[in-house]
Amino acid sequence: MSYQIAQNYSSRRQQNWSRNQNTVAFVSAIKLGPVTNVVIIALMVTILGLIYLTQATRATGYDYATQKIDSQIAALNEQKSDLEIENAKLTSLETAKNSSVASTMTTPATTEYAQ
Amino acid sequence: MNLELQKGSRSKTLAAILFITMAVFVGRLFYLQIIQHDYYVGVANQEQIKRLAIPAKRGLIYALDGQTPVPLVMNQTVYTVFADPKTTTDDTKIIDTIRKIAGGNACPDLQALLNKKDSRYQVLATRITRSQADKIKQENLNGVGFQEESQRVYPEGSLAAQTLGFVDFSGVGRYGVEDKLNDELTGTDGLLQSVTDVRDVPLTIGNNNINRPAVNGKNVVLSIDRNVQSHVEQALSDGLKRTGATRGSAIVMDPQTGQIMAMANLPTYDPAKFNLVSDVAAFNNAVVSAPYEPGSDVKTLTMATGIDKGVVTPDATYNNTDYIKVDDRTITNATLGQTGEITFQHALNWSLNTGFVTVAERLGDGKSITRGARDTMYDYFYNRFHLGQLTGVEVAGETAGTVVSPTTSEGNAVRYSNMAFGQGLDATMVQVASAFGSIVNGGKYYKPTVIAGVVDASGKYIANKITQPSMQIAKSTADQVRSMTHVARDTFFASLDRPGYYIGGKTGTSQVIKNGVYSSDETVGTYLGYGGSEDLSRYVIMIQVSGDNKLLQGARDALPIFTDISNWMLNYLEIQPKG
Fold first, then answer.
1. Model pTM score
2. Which one, B34, B256, B281, B535, has the greatest CB density within 10 A?
3. Residue from the list B75, B130, B202 with its beta carbon closest to the beta carbon of A67
4. How many CB pairs under 8 A join A and B?
5. Are A63 and A39 spatial neighbours (Cβ–Cβ below 8 Å)?
6. Which of B76, B157, B577 lies at the smallest CB-CB distance from A85?
């Protein structure tokens, strides 16, 4: 990489100028060689690649989180359905008939109806 | 100069080699990526993309408890525990754990199963619950795995078993509603297609992902009321013990809607243990699948035909001599002695065959059962009362039965004289009960059904609309026959019924054909009746009892079962007695 003074000043009168035209031109003192360009491009490609990888990994990470939540939902649904079955069994006629309350019930001798 | 030339020559050669090499690479890449693109995409997809079926849940089946659906059939996830004997390390621990947690679900002789070191798959326990599986998993047993499957569970045990049917081991509904509505109950499996990692976790990368959710099966609500069903099964069981009958069937219908409130058959079975049933006859719902000669119950239909055609009235008379000749046959009454000029009401009370053969004759020229009389009877029995044809009730295995057409040689006067009192035709109980329902409700025939509605995904019960009935006989005809059956029951059995209600019915004792002739050592007892208030009949009940080589009677053996159920129904439906 080489550096050189590149600021050249010239008076207005030394130039033909017209209205609204810049009177001072700035030229960068840093000049990049072909190797530098290649390195910079390679760095940019690497950074872009890293960004892509980060995003892809993050998306995959979400997939794992989703999968974990899905599994939890499935397990909870299964638990819910087991409880529903248990509830249905406990409230079934068979359970009611065999309950201690039912065994102490008696048939009324007479029944009267409200008119 | 020579050196420069040589230098240039090497560079060119190197360049040429590089160019050729690159050309080969480019050519090869072109071949692989462009020409063979589809092939390699396919291979990659095979490796990376998994297609997982999302199983649809089979629909639940509910019964009613009053107007509230209660589950009769549910789904439960159960597990099969298996081992890979080649990779198991601590067989003693595996055996102890499985025996302790799986209990009766563990396979016998676990040691022998684990000793089969050449095998990669041995089942150690079947149908264990999720909590049992979790406990086994906590033990971290090497070489032990779990397979998940869904099974039907029956919170009410064997209640309404033959109406429900069961689901076989391949997941297909067999018998009953499970079979008839298999497509609706099964639903449609979903599909998850995605790139997965090594543990089969689906990833969102890739363009060909599909996530089609499963469509679960319909949750069906039966019109079967579990309380009515339970009482009917109990009453039938008690009745069979009392009478010595070995088979019994019962149906309870709402005559105002055609909905079946209970359908029971004995012997029955436990649908959760269908594989242990030795006699497959137990799977059949005889109410819909076993046509028989219904016997004297059909006299109500013959009377309705005669009244509707205007040839008889309940008070019209005929001369009963206890026998009547039809062509070369003589038909006699089962009960003798009610001879002389008697009314048709009297004939119904005493169930005299001669009276109903006379009705059939009066449908013709008054002396014989002419072709015209037979055509009329066929029109009423087959077309209007729907005997001998499928009702379309939503239970698998329905059988049509037979009403012989007068256009055939078998459809002669003798046949139709027998049909007048319920012999010589085959009908199922659901057909007869539905036909009788059209008499007790004022002449409207409702198609019988066991489906009351559905429970949607949010758990809301949506009741079906009641199908429009078809008017089959005049209301005045229906009312007269209803009244006749009330009188017939009141004549002999009034004391059995709760006071203040309007109950009616008809007994039936039918002969059974064995080896082509009517057997003298076997009869089927039937009772067909209704109950409710005088203004509105709320239920129709039909009972049938039978047994090999057993002489069973409608009045003695089937009627008490009807009475038991009828008196209970009056309470259950909270029908107010007339003061």
1. 0.83
2. B256
3. B202
4. 57
5. no
6. B76
Per-residue pLDDT of chain B (579 residues; tens, 9 = 90+): 455 555 567 788 888 999 999 999 999 999 999 999 999 988 888 888 888 888 899 999 999 999 999 999 999 999 999 999 988 888 999 999 999 999 888 998 899 999 988 888 999 998 898 889 989 999 989 899 998 888 999 999 999 999 999 999 888 999 999 999 999 999 999 998 888 877 777 777 777 788 899 999 999 999 999 999 999 999 999 999 999 999 999 999 999 999 999 999 999 999 999 999 999 999 999 999 999 999 999 999 999 999 999 999 999 999 999 999 999 999 999 999 999 999 999 999 999 999 999 999 999 999 999 999 999 999 999 999 999 999 999 999 999 999 999 999 999 999 999 999 999 999 999 999 999 999 999 999 999 999 999 999 899 999 999 888 999 999 999 999 999 999 999 999 989 999 999 999 999 999 888 888 888 899 999 999 999 999 999 999 999 999 999 999 999 999 999 999 999 999 999 999 887
Residues in chain A with CB shorter than 8 Å from the CB of B74 are: 81, 84-85, 88
Of B461, B496, B531, the domain-final residue: B496
Are residues B255 and B143 part of one domain? Answer: no
- ipTM metric: 0.79
CA distance linking residue B147 with residue A80, whole number of Å:
20
Is residue B300, in this structure, part of any structural domain at all?
A: yes
Q: Where are the alpha helices (DSSP H) in B369-412?
A: 371-378
Helix residue ranges per DSSP H, B208-298: 226-243, 286-289
Could you list the beta-strand ranges (E) of A12-114.
Answer: 30-31
Q: Is residue B142 part of a domain?
A: yes
According to DSSP H, which parts of B426-521 are helical? 429-440, 475-493
Token pair of B417 as six digits? 């004289």
Alpha-carbon distance of B168 to B172, in angstroms, equals 6
Which of B297, B351, B257 has its CA nearest to residue B544? B297
Tokens of B239: 């009745």
Q: Is residue B462 part of a domain?
A: yes
Tell which residue, B22, B528, B572, has the closest CA to residue B255.
Answer: B528
Does some domain include residue B367? Answer: yes
**Rounded (10°) angle between helices B413-420 and B299-308:** 110
Interface test with A, best of B64, B131, B156 (most A CBs within 10 A): B156
